[in-house]
Amino acid sequence: MPTIVTQRPYRPVPTDPPRKRWTRAECATLESSGLWDQQHLELVHGELISKMGKKRPHVNALVAVQAWLVRTFGEQFVNPEAPIDVAPEDNPTNEPEPDLVVLAKPSREFEDANPRPSDLRLVVEISDSTVGFDLTTKAELYARAGIVEYWVVDVAARRLVVHRDPREGLYRSVTAYGEDEAVIPLTSPRTAFRVADAFGA
Predict the structure, then answer these.
(1) Contact present, 114 and 92 (Cβ < 8 Å)
(2) Which residue stretches of 128-173 are H helix?
(3) How far is CA 86 from CA 16, 35, 44, 163, 183, in A?
(4) In 3D, which of 120, 145, 130, 14 has the Cα closest to residue 62?
């Protein structure tokens, strides 16, 4: 007798488990309760991203770039790892904390609210293990917000990727600069940052 094979209906197997999408309001409530003490997290597209565990090359690049920004723009205009606002439609589920931001007005003027995109002259991410995320997800988020200039310091490749001209949710100008090159910020046309200075000898 022929063997009868009963086929079960195909059900695709999910590749990822369900995830909880967070809002800024929920994060603020948890933070005020003290549950996040000793943790450094940022909210991107409803997911909490850990900012901990930086390696020494990342730290060294951060210190070098921050020192140059302070000399160029002034200490009161440079914020390390501070939350910012993005586009209004993205704000409910996003509160990124770039490694460095350069403000258009002194930091003390922001008492109860994050800097808005129009308050930002330059946003910088120091990228070691997160370079892919910073060049795609973060770049799109900042472009939609209309942030005029975004730098990604690519530690592993020893280069600086400069994003400019945000239009329709994308940066229309993206240029990678090597160690033997220099970059002039849009809002400080008389100064140039030598890419090699981010990486030391």
Answers:
(1) no
(2) 131-133, 139-145
(3) 28, 25, 10, 16, 25
(4) 130
Q: How far apart are CA 29 and CA 163, in angstroms?
A: 34
Do 118 and 89 contact (CB within 8 A), yes or no? no
**Mean pLDDT of the region 191-200:** 94
Q: What angle do CA 172, 175, 68 make, to 5 degrees?
A: 115
**Measured between alpha carbons, how far is 81 from 73 in angstroms, rounded to an integer?**
17
User: What band does 121 get if pLDDT is binned at 50, 70 and 90?
Assistant: very high
Lookup: tokens for 5: 């094979």
Tokens of 185: 């910020």
Q: At 155, list the tokens.
A: 């530690």
Q: What's the pLDDT score for residue 110?
A: 93
DSSP conformation class of 20: P
> Do residues 179 and 159 lie in contact, with contact meaning Cβ atoms separated by under 8 Å?
yes
With residue 122 as reference, give the H or E element that holds it: strand 120-127
Q: Return d(Cα 24, Cα 41) in angstroms, integer.
A: 12
The two three-digit tokens of residue 121, written as one number:
């002259």
Q: What 8-state DSSP symbol labels residue 95?
A: B
pTM (two decimals):
0.79
